[in-house]
Amino acid sequence: MNAALDTIWRGRIFYLFVLPFAALTILFGVWPILLSIQVSFTASATALRPNPTYVGFANYFTVFADPIFLASLWRTLVYTALSVLANLAFALAFAVLLDSTLIKRGNLFFRLAIFLPVVTPDVAGYVVWRWLYDRSFGALNALLKMLGLPAFSGLSSADTAMLSLLIAELWHHAGFYMIIFLANLAIRDKALEEAAHIDGATTWQRWRYVILPQLRPALVINTVYALIQFLKTFTVVVVMTKGGPNDQTNFVTYYAYQLFDQGRYGEATAMATILFAIVITISMSAFLIGEKGAKR
Amino acid sequence: MSGRPPHRGLQALAYVIATVVSLLFLYPYWWMLVSAFRPTRAIMSDPLRLWPERFDLSIFTEIGRVGGVELWVYVWNSLLITSLSTLLSVVITSLGAYALVRRPDLPGFRLLRYGFLVTIMYPYMLLVIPVYLVMFKLGLLGSYAGIILFLALGPIQFFLFEQFFRATPGEVIEAGIIDGANELQVLFRIVLPMAAPITATVALITFLLNWSQWFPILVISRSPDTYTLPVALLSMNSELGSNFQGIMALAVLTTLPVAVLFLLAQKRVMEGMASGAVKG
């Protein structure tokens, strides 16, 4: 015990350095999370009182019996899977294109064009997209009409609303995944490709057996980041659809937020805890699968 | 691959694809900009027009008030909140990451790092809800201080500093200590001067990220008096019978400062974000 105190005392200057960071992490990270978990075990009506009524797992049972929540959870998982695939496929394809010897002049322009949306305030980007999709103001349908193509119902139809969000979110996020692929492509061992070429490997074989395995780090990082990103999809829903039409874009985060707004704190925080558990489980398994593959 | 000259036809195809995709990505900006200068009725009759009928800045005086608050208040709030939270973030995160990297053996340091990692895994928008309760308990609801403090904590800032300090050669610090420098002198005379470039990168990225923040600001605010431009834009967009031209003008105002800043410092931003992510 004394030895520990001694270590702390001799390292006191480091505790001083870390103090503000620790304070913020605890006040705005650890404490709210614990508070949220605590609230999820209380009756909503008493949640904010000094002495709330604890109801055990009742809120979790309510949530798992709620068909709207189950539909919303399923929708979130489907949307996440589609978004991760679409974003990574697009980002990888574009990174490979820009990294190839085919594009020399203007390379920076193309990178900037794809990356600019990443640093554009998401609210502004999605507001513009919302109106681009609009039936009477939107440029998209005006263009389709000019080309003699059928109209795209965009955000107004239950069939196309999710796709519309996916496109707008791809516009906002794909540039980030692209630069990670580009960074990985830049540090790969090009001599291996030369050797494979000399040995008579086809372009496809070079890709499959030489380049792709070297891109594993970027693939793992991007998959984990994208999974976390799209499981948490929120802003685009608030700006563009408010969960509609017909609940087709009512993802878990938005549904939980709506319940919170209605004062159903217990259920809202139970959903938050569930989503948190899902985010951790999925991203950890993606990470572990990636790591395991790397060792093989 | 590198040795052979590229096929001409293939090269032309690559340029066509890259150009079309890039222009599609840039088109929303152009449409936003043009729409900010065109009356709502003109946009409805011809949404595809690539150039405004006339160059008219009057919309910015027309939207002089949004949600009962002067437009310049939002501009000022954005500048104030973004700058101060960036400054605070750089100071707090650099010191914290430095201490955690230098002495991971100190009691509690490992736990703190895990606590931080768990925090950034938590769905952000759902964290903001209990943060509301915390802010209420701390009496920070509706204050600039509450917003600025909350925005000072971010994952990419921490990872960039952590990565930098881990790569800092220990011999440099050892040498300083042998020369009789105390830890404060080591920090201010040896470590911080070396960390100047990474500090600039972190500051830049934090500014860009915090300028875009909206949900924590909306939740911690009690009235539009502490709203920033993105929050004002969101509330204007949700208003009934929206003023389309006004919304586009406000979107331009929200986007332009960070777009320009990014283009001026693009190399630093893209490299910083890539390496901050790779480490995380």
Structure characterization notes:
The complex is a heterodimer of chains A (296) and B (280). With 296 residues, chain A is mainly alpha-helical. Chain A has one domain: Orthogonal Bundle (MetI-like fold), CATH 1.10.3720. Helix content of chain A is 74%, strand content 0%. Chain A is built from 14 helices and no strands. Chain B folds into two domains: 56 residues, no CATH class; 218 residues, MetI-like fold (Orthogonal Bundle), CATH 1.10.3720. Chain B is 75% helix and 1% strand. Chain B is built from 15 helices and two strands. Chain B has a two-stranded antiparallel sheet. The longest helix of chain B is centred in the first third of the chain and has 32 residues.
Oligomer: heterodimer
Supply Rg of chain A.
Answer: 24 Å
Q: Judging from the principal axes of the Cα atoms, what is the shape of chain B?
A: globular
Per DSSP E runs of 2 or more residues, the count of β-strands of chain A stands at 0
Overall mean pLDDT score of chain A? 90
The strand line-up of the biggest sheet of chain B is: 1-2
Radius of gyration of chain B: 23 Å
Low-confidence stretches of chain B: none
- If classified by CATH, what would the architecture of the largest domain in chain B be? Orthogonal Bundle
Structural class of chain A: mainly alpha
Specify the biggest β-sheet of chain B.
2 strands, antiparallel
What is the mean predicted local confidence, pLDDT of chain B?
88
Secondary structure tally, helices of chain B: 15
Q: Can you tell me the number of structural domains of chain A? A: 1
